[in-house]
Amino acid sequence: MAEPTATALNDAIHSGLLEFTEDIYGQIVRFQREELTNVCVAPICLYDMLSMLLSGSGGATRIELQQVLHWPGRFSDSIVHHAISAFTMSCLLPFTRTGMARRMFLLKHAQLKPQFMNDLHYYYKCTVEKIDTLKGIESKRRYINRWVTESTQHQITNLVPVDLITEASWSCVLSALHCETSSTKVATRETLFHLLNGSKRYVQMMHKVDRILMLELPELEAFAIKLPLHLSNYQLLLILPYANNGLVNLVQHLEQPGTLSTILAEEFTYEILSLYVPQFTQGHRGNPDLNPILFGLGLVSLFDRTKADLSGMMEEMGLAISHIIHRAIFEIADLGAVNQAVIASPGTEAIREFRADHPFFLCLLYDHHTPIVIGHVVKPRRSRGPIYAVCETPKQSSVDSLASWLSTHKLRPVELSRQLSGITEEQNALPVLLDGRLVGWSSSWAECLLLANELRDLKLDKSSTQVPYSLEIAAVPPTEVGSQYPGLYLFTGASRLLRPVKNIKNGSQVGAGGLVEWIGTFEQPYLNIAVTEKELEERSAEDQSHIELSPECIFSFVAGLTPYQEFNQVFASITR
């Protein structure tokens, strides 16, 4: 065997990984001939995992693995295994502690060779775990899933689906990777995304203007960018078709051997782009069983007990790998750091738009050329974490109709002074304000409460056009101690947090269990909101007005307002 230089060996491994990436992506695309769906796979993890199996194989199985991996056979196996392990670990370093899991599980009793176990640990820092003593397939499946969940810090759960492993399953090899470009989620705007079938859906779109590496691909009817990420030395390759439905044509080109390698070898040039990319999480769904994909690549004997040669792995013959299970989850929550010099400079360079508002291809790269995660986005899935609601802006017509309604309800006029209108004689008179504007005076607290209840009845009446459902009605009572200035405060404007509770006092369906009412943060302290039915039983009828939709409902809103939600393990864990 040749004594390799470090450069020659790394080049050979990198070349083999690129070819393997193109092969496996092409095979996945061929499985989606009828309809393209979201794809996310980590070829570098699969390359690493299959290299482990090669160290314990022989005969035809070894030859098949070498062909699938494009193994650099001119070098000795020990040197190649050591180099592959070092190469993959350097590429995956940010994810190894909290987002990566790989292990071989023996579901039935078998005697493994000590040399294989030593090689696996020495080269790949991986182990084989025997769980043959666990009773029942379901207990084994749960054990594996629990281990993956703990190894990935609860980022990947339920990796092995029900019914995947059976009583006939002897072993499974699994690999899981969670890649998160940043723990900080940037501001987004709701924007339409065009689907392949011609329909549209709303997605959360991120935006920035920056100088970004770009490449025109006219032969693919697309253009590509390399987006720098917060993770040092990582880039996101996005290839966007010109047409909204151009992904089908694009993947047909990308499934051909050499296409992706050619694109990565091209010289990208910097251009100032106005960049729009959806905020999404890729890879939660889909069958994690890769047996059919690898079988299509030519890895046939590994899964057949009559043909598999695992003589370097175990003492017994007639055993095979039952399942190779893989899942990669890729989250993009921001677009990386913005070059402030680009924004501040008054240059004359034209700004082009890169708007990923239709299906596109993606590839997470290490050092511009090594694929970590590859796939395509057909229908962006919202990033995980606290759920943000789609907001509606109140219409001005609703505000005008409410002001008109209030003017007909015996309020003391605003035009006259307090002295002329006789309010100085009525010390209990309270102001009525609409969006901070004084619209009249109520002669007493009792009259103020009657007006508030009448407004709340109309608010709950779906047929009413005079009072919007988003109206906030805060009746602040007079007290003997210092407090909020008493009066009736009405709010209809935007930028208010509203949440649903059940009104059991107002409306026409009180006897039917109450109506859902949206309340605001200002009025909440002045309402009697029970958490459970038991609380209502303990209160008098006068103290009953609202009840939570569910006992834990309030925590969803508290978590949404908590700074750094991803690091708050109390409320964040409750809402997930």
UniProtKB/TrEMBL annotation:
Q: Which InterPro entries match?
A: Rpa2_dom_4, Serpin_dom, Serpin_fam, Serpin_sf, Serpin_sf_1, Serpin_sf_2
The record's GO CC annotations read: DNA-directed RNA polymerase complex; extracellular space; nucleus
Q: What is the top-level taxon of the source organism?
A: Eukaryota
The record's Pfam families line, in alphabetical order, gives: RNA_pol_Rpa2_4, Serpin
> Which residues lie in coiled coils?
none
Any idea where the Serpin domain is? 22-380
Q: Which UniProt keywords apply?
A: DNA-directed RNA polymerase, Transcription
Q: Which SMART domains does the annotation name?
A: SERPIN
Descriptive protein name: DNA-directed RNA polymerase I subunit RPA2
